[in-house]
Amino acid sequence: MPELPEIRNLAAQMCVELNGRRVSGVEIRHDKCLNLGAEEFKSLVLGKTFGDVLSRGKWIFARLEPGLHFLLSLGMGGDVLFSPKPEAMPDKYRLRLDFEDGSLLTIGFWWFGYAHVVTDRGLAEHKMTADLGPDPLNDPTFTRDWFNDRLSEKKGNIKAILMDQRFIAGIGNVYIQDILFRAGLHPDRRAAFIPREQRDRLYTAIRENLERATSLGGLAYERDLYGRPGRFKDFLVGYREGAACPECGATIQKIRTGSTSSFICPRCQA
Ligand SMILES: [Zn+2]
Prior knowledge:
The protein is an alpha+beta fold. The protein contains 8 helices and 10 strands.
């Protein structure tokens, strides 16, 4: 499942390839991912020109000039692929945008996903994105003090809180594993009782882990806009059940935490 690093890279690549490209064709194979009827979606998008593309957490925000925003979420995963010519495009997709120069963008979802189009005014009312918390790499709101203060007010366990997209946008069940390990925190730890020193470590781990994975192009089993896999695969404890903890040598365990699985070092994370 793509998280902040994969989505951030995808948005940056989309910005390079799509900026200035005018939509000359729209094909919708499945309209469930849309927020409008297929015909309305088509008539809005046709003839529009892509502007800047940014990300916030797991959502991609593309400007469609004049006056629109194209919002994309890959849900549990998907393929967003840019093809310079139709002969190079994939067979499977749910949505396809053709551009005037013959290049095209195809979007497929492994399970579910969202491709929404909203107006400038509609963006503020778009519930799924309007409620997102700050992006820990993009948003100046996400400071050490903000993070520390907000954690004090939180009820519940730290893992669920960090994965709540309304608190911080972009962390899912993949990157959370090593982030908690680096802070020495058990996933079930009550957030409000975590001492300041550990919150500092947690803040640093969030920024550094997401930045590092982004610089490596994201996860090795996710693909970018050109179909290339990422290069991040060296987890500390994530997905390393039965292996030795890189800090203390204890055996890494896979445990159930709420509705998700967690990988922890039973000695380093309390
Ligand atoms: Zn350990």
